[in-house]
């Protein structure tokens, strides 16, 4: 029997560390640990800091190329910030359950996985005053800003009652 070489041990350790730092599916942290400060300062200033793994690379590429008309808003950034954020988004894209599908209009809320996870949420819930839209992840997911969508951290806002529905379970 061969004994592992130092190189193979280092590779195994490196793969283990990489697995811990990349996006985790339901039940774990999904936001990459190397998030640029500009992502929180620029993107999360207006909406949830969406985890890059939730969209494929081509979707992020189109989003970053169209910041001047970002879903009806001019979210233009200087070239250096666009370059930094684009590189980070590309490096971490599609890691949630190996997302490859490009949802309509590159909207997370129109992706197959989002629709499956929220399939039992009535349309009226998204219109509730404390939620306002399906894109407001933080309204129910208390750890959304950290990329934590663990089922145990879901809290429905006051006045929203889904009864015993556990719509976020697979």
TrEMBL record:
Q: Does the keyword Signal apply?
A: yes
| Signal peptide residues on this chain, from the entry's feature table | 1-25
Q: Keyword Membrane on this protein? A: no
What name does this protein carry?
A: Cytochrome C
Q: Which residues form a coiled coil?
A: none
> InterPro entries annotated for this entry?
Dihaem_cytochrome-c, Multihaem_cyt_sf
Q: Which UniProt keywords apply?
A: Signal
Gene source species: Hydrogenophaga aromaticivorans
């Amino acid at each position: 029997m061969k004994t592992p070489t130092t190189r193979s041990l280092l590779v195994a350790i490196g793969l283990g560390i990489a697995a811990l730092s990349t996006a985790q599916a339901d039940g774990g942290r999904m936001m990459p640990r190397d998030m640029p400060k500009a992502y929180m300062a620029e993107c999360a200033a207006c909406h949830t800091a969406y985890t890059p793994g939730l969209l494929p690379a081509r979707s992020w590429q189109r989003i970053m190329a169209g910041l001047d008309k970002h879903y009806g808003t001019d979210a233009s950034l200087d070239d250096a910030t666009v370059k930094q954020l684009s590189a980070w988004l590309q490096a971490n894209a599609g890691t949630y359950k190996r997302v490859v599908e490009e949802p309509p209009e590159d909207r997370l809320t129109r992706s197959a996985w989002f629709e499956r996870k929220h399939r039992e949420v009535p349309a009226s819930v998204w219109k509730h005053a404390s939620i306002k839209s399906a894109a407001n992840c933080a309204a129910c997911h208390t750890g959304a800003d950290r990329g934590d969508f663990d089922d145990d951290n879901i809290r429905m806002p006051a006045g929203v009652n889904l009864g015993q529905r556990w719509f976020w379970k697979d």
